Amino acid sequence: MALNPRVATVPAGTPTKVTQGSQTKGGIGESTLRPDGTLKVTGEFAYSSDMWHEDMLWGQTLRSTVAHAEIRSIDVSEAVAMPGVYAVLTYDDLPAEMKNYGLEIQDTPVLAHGKVRHHGEPVALVAADHPETARRAAARIRIDYAELPLITDEASATAPDAVLVHENRDDHHIGHVPHPNIVHRQPIVRGDVAEARKRADVIVEGEYVFGMQDQAFLGPESGLAVPAEDGGVDLYVATQWLHSDLRQIAPVLGLPEEKVRMTLSGVGGAFGGREDLSMQIHACLLALRTGKPVKIVYNRFESFFGHVHRHPAKLHYEHGATRDGKLTHLKCRIVLDGGAYASASPAVVGNAASLSVGPYVVDDVDIEAIALYSNNPPCGAMRGFGAVQACFAYEAQMDKLAAALGMDPVELRQLNAMEQGTIMPTGQPVDSPAPVAELLRRVKSRPLPPERQWEVAGGEADVRALPGGLSNTTHGEGVVRGVGYAVGIKNVGFSEGFDDYSTARVRMEVVGGQPVATVHTAMAEVGQGGVTVHAQIARTELGVTQVTIRPADTQVGSAGSTSASRQTYVTGGAVKNACELVREKVLEIGRRKFGSYHPAWATAELLLEGGKVVTDGGEVLSDLVDVLEGEVVEVEAEWRHRPTEAFDLRTGQGNGHVQYSFAAHRAVVEVDTELGLVKVVELACAQDVGKALNPLSVVGQIQGGTTQGLGVAVMEEIIVDPKTAKVRNPSFTDYLIPTILDTPTIPVDVLELADEHAPYGLRGIGEAPTLSSTPAVLAAIRDATGLELNRTPVRPEHLTGT
User: Hey, CA dihedral for 508, 509, 514, 518, is it positive or negative?
Assistant: First the structure.
């Protein structure tokens, strides 16, 4: 008989065993290949933009052409009259009382009402029988704007007579911010900075500017909404968080959540840019209005307006140290521009503030981080999430301090490096390995790449190895080498009291004469490799070879967001928990069926390996097929990491984070000092991953994050016109990202120091290398040029003075 499904929860704070698991092939610790890898390489993988439905319509969004303006009128008559147009919707056509949405603060209108707050804000929707018809119809909608004064920086946002971006704020942050145009403020005060400053023999200060970065995923926003007979809708979409989308979508449609069924479709990258909604509500609205399936696919230009970006930042830092290099104090202020809507800004502020000291021991700190509302493009989650901006500044400060003290910059960092047991500025102890000094030692001890690699036989130059590359701008004249180091700290998982958990449903049965496990979660596979890891966990815990991963949807409990380096930790923990419960049920069946024939069924520690039930001594008791014949075992289980708490709004104290990850980089660059061109030759990385569940994927994640950090160091920035708040470079023609020709050699040194609180001892890895790669590249360029270079990205004119 089949066992009834059950829900089990591991209580918050329950430690999990650090185990190696079974010896079944393809399990934990092996470099198994991605099941979708071949399809993606050959171009056969179906992304969300590839979806098709019979008789479907195409949706189009009309976006504002100005950044801040009153909407005096909207005339849709010409658009409605066009042949092939099935629907035109504005704010007044929205069906439910709830007309706003948002990750934390519901301040974002589905369609602009009364006024627009940023360039590219959605104002109207069109559904037509052809994408070009929809586009032309949207162009015929006439909007009369009366432009309003712009808020573009802290000075304009907090001036006594400043225009309010949101006139009627009523969110829970409004009571502790000094101005309504400040989304959130987080101070952190510990010790006595004024007294500590007196003990400092050297004090260094710096002002730093971090540019707005785009996630630049290759698959644009897209999805397909299909109206259902029950009055609901089925949405197939590329996203990072199915259940968060559901929570925001259903109220706006006026539907209960069970009538909005969401299925993850192929995701072409995310990096935080798909945590917020884009076309989801719009496609559903058009599908429900027309009674037909509606597909929306953004082009690249629209994608730059259709998702949030990384917060640009201005950071002021002061560090003090004694003559022997021990840090005395840190004082800093971080101003993040959140743009027109809140998105994830409050959480980004918390991260920036709590991690602003870096992986160093400093007892006396005075920290303030804020995020602004402005009329610039909305900003939210992106890989690194507030810690990236802080790391750029505090690592530049460490180099500046080392120079002032006449110390080696790596030795200064190692002297002040945190370790297990260090107390964070928030008062929280670091209770898992923190091998900061060792990571730095490892990258520094690597052999340097040979100099003048561009020289080849016959006196010619391989221009591909030179700054400027195939543009053939130099043959080595004026090229100078530089070497730089950086290390960073990133939190893992959601923090500050968020109930961070995940759910997994695991089923075990005999199919075609073989024991088969099926894993079902709502985890968004965005390229990080979770589908591979889930199969590895099932093989390890259940001793089977055949594992089926069901498509992610909302028919199973929430897996949370694929962000914060949390999915392997939390959803992996849920899969492990569900598998352990399934295993116990399978063994119960075996004991019932065969226990009377062999006493080991009752007394031994039984394992599932290679499709068999074995004792801990290796004696085979039964084949799993025999145990499971006629049985279906299914369990749905949750897993929560240890609880966290919100930071105190006055002092910033609190156990806000559950785990930390650390990475260090050494960058080797060559700079053409005459033309201002940079060639990054090598970006060596050392990172502690706790346990490498899939070593091949681990290295891929580290190299990918490293390359993204390289991009913001030397080329990536969304340019916003300060006079109009309009984006000037919304295309891959003008917004540059690293190609294979820009990507250096990235040797990776992986440490595995287990965190006893995490499943298998693992540590989230995806974000940490994005932090330290950027300041390492900047440090290397400073080493080559002697320039201060206090902003990202570095442009040629910063190196040549032109």
Answer: negative
**Tokens 């006629």 identify what position?**
630
| Four-residue CA torsion sign, 277, 218, 565, 483 | negative
**Domain 48-148+221-297 belongs to what topology?**
Aldehyde Oxidoreductase; domain 3 (3.90.1170)
pLDDT in tens, 465-481: 899 888 888 888 889 99
Amino acid at 761: G
Distance between start and end Cα atoms, the chain: 79
Contact in structure between 24 and 610 (CB atoms under 8 Å):
yes
Would you say 291 and 234 are in contact if contact means Cβ atoms under 8 Å apart? no
Q: Copy the structure tokens of residue 125.
A: 């929707």
Q: What are 547-594's pLDDT values in tens digits?
A: 999 999 999 999 999 999 999 999 999 999 999 999 999 999 999 999
- Using one digit for the tens of pLDDT, what is the confidence trace for 609-657? 999 999 988 999 999 999 999 999 999 999 999 999 999 999 999 999 9
Place of tokens 């390359």: 707
Helices (H), 436-513: 436-445
The three-state (H, E, C) secondary structure of 511-537, written as one string: ECCEEEEEEECCCCCCCCCHHHHHHHH
In single-letter form, the type of residue at position 457 comes to A
* DSSP-based three-state secondary structure for 174: helix
d(CA 277, CA 306): 9
- Residue 460 reports pLDDT greater than 90: no
Report how far residue 728's alpha carbon sits from residue 721's, in angstroms, rounded to the nearest whole number. Answer: 7
Burial (CB < 10 A; 0-12, 13-18, 19+), residue 553, is middle
Which two tokens mark 340? 């027109």
Question: How far lies 162's CA from each of 118, 373, 482, in Å?
Answer: 16, 11, 45
Sequence-distant (6+) residues with CB within 8 A of 352 are: 186, 313, 334, 336, 369, 386, 387, 389, 390
Residue ranges of the domains in the chain?
7-30+501-640, 48-148+221-297, 424-495+657-800
Amino acid 518 reads T
What is the CB neighbour count within 10 angstroms for residue 759?
28
CATH code: domain 424-495+657-800 is: 3.30.365.10
Q: Does domain 7-30+501-640 have CATH number 3.20.20.80?
A: no
Q: What is the DSSP pairing of strand 69-75 with strand 142-147?
A: antiparallel
pLDDT per position as a tens digit, 121-179: 999 999 999 999 999 999 999 999 999 999 999 999 999 999 999 999 999 999 999 99
Which parts of 27-122 fold into alpha helices (H)? 37-42, 77-81
Other beta carbons less than 10 A from residue 547's beta carbon: 21
Contact (CB, 8 A) for 300 and 273? no
CATH topology of 7-30+501-640 equal to that of 424-495+657-800?
Answer: yes
What is 421-451 written as a DSSP string? TPBPTTS-B--S---HHHHHHHHHHSPPPPS
